[in-house]
Amino acid sequence: MTPPTMNMNFTTFSNTINGESRLSPITTSSLNPSTESPLWPVPVATPKDVEEAIHSANAAFPSWSSTPFAERLQKLEQWKQLYEPYIEAFTTLLMQECGKPRAVAAGEAHEVLALFDHNLQLRMPEERLEDEARVVVTRHVPVGVVAAICPWNFPLVLSVGKILPALLTGCCIIVKPSPFTPYSALKMVELAQKVFPPGVVQAIGGDEAVGPALVQHPDVQKIAFTGSSATGKRIMAEAAKTLKRVTLELGGNDPAIIYPDVDIATTAPEVVQGCFVFSGQVCVATKRVYVHESIYEPFLEAMVEATSQMTVGKADDPSTTMGPMQNHMQYTKVQELVADSHAQGYIFALPPQSIEGKGYFLSPCIVDNPPPTSRIVMEEQFGPIVPVLKWSDEKEVIACANGTTSGLGASVWSADVARAERVGRLMQAGSVFVNSWAKTTPRAMLSGHKQSGIGGEWGSTGFLEYCNTQVVHLFK
């Protein structure tokens, strides 16, 4: 079936409630981080908007959850076809709201297609056991109404990555985008209205009151959240009051362990990419680099050389390879870590460079072998600063790598792949990369250990987190 055509305006933005665009007497706008100039106004959802969205989702749920699975797949395919002609428009939008250089923004816009393709291949599992007395059927039924509370660093991928499995399993979903980057998610949900019945997928942006209202509401059955561990803990505490299901993808402090047998010339630039892609504002970015003492100096020098080749600038400048920080809040946090490292007398192998003019620009910098218990090592930076540390004993470096409360990602680098895999299996992390920085794929689950999350997303089983398990006992 050919999806309906539409022309989208990428300069006006609204919330979507019960299939209709919804404005508000109160608006806000986020800033272009490359210029600090205001972007377009977006409506701030009122308490009444939140109530109506939840009511509409619950009203739509009986019909949508009973829609045949094949028909739900067909709807997802139609939505994908509607999206494809707008990839360039979404790329430009991501450049403006996130400050992502074109290549990074285009990567996110195209990753949405990979999410569609992956989810379109999924099928609901069912187990059937039989003995002389009974047949036992284990099946998965949709949990109900889901609220997706989405972050600012990948506003399109991380919202679509929640919407697709929710719709596939028969849930209805309300998307709450970050007020720092509301635009792409609002527009993507607007696009979905041409395909899905009213109330099935909605979006309500606004201020800091919207998220708590969704979490506390008794008629929301699940929260899917990506963001900081601190916020995740608050969500989990509130969700416990109504025993909501939660999926929490939280912060990381991902270590990289570098063995002395690596090829320095090829490995160091790859490690640098893992540290500084999207200015380090990635949950699974490399945030601590442990280099064997026998190659520490040349490896550090190679990292400095590769990092020095990065061009920091505005997102729309074709020469830019690293854009600004996305928002002033995160910009300030990273500046504090830089200042603390200076105050403690740590050595900068690559010191920060001053950047004049508007925009939340920080040059990438590398701290040379700070104490293993320093703030720059133990805290998640989420920005373009990384500590590099020496190691000599394998057991000790594994303990250091695992020695934080985070457990999202890790990487191990060695010419001896068997050794790297063995050590990788000892990492207390949900995703381990051998001889690569964190290159995630929708085909593999993304989950966190320890305080980096509860549950997981993507992969062949992540969509089942939008379901309750039901066992039917059929007695003969």
Automatic annotation (TrEMBL):
Domain of life of the organism encoding this protein: Eukaryota
EC number(s) reported in the record: 1.2.1.3
Keyword Transcription regulation carried by entry: no
An MF annotation (GO) of this entry: aldehyde dehydrogenase (NAD+) activity
Catalyzed chemical reaction(s): an aldehyde + NAD(+) + H2O = a carboxylate + NADH + 2 H(+)
InterPro entries: Ald_DH/histidinol_DH (IPR016161), Ald_DH_C (IPR016163), Ald_DH_CS_CYS (IPR016160), Ald_DH_CS_GLU (IPR029510), Ald_DH_N (IPR016162), Aldehyde_DH_dom (IPR015590), LUC3-like (IPR044086)
Listed CDD domains: ALDH_AldA-AAD23400
The UniProt record lists the keyword Calcium: no
Top-tier EC class: oxidoreductase
Keywords: Oxidoreductase
Catalytic machinery residues: E249
Domain (Aldehyde dehydrogenase) ranges: 28-472
PANTHER family for this protein: ALDEHYDE DEHYDROGENASE-RELATED (PTHR11699)
Family (UniProt): Belongs to the aldehyde dehydrogenase family.
Protein name, entry field: aldehyde dehydrogenase (NAD(+))
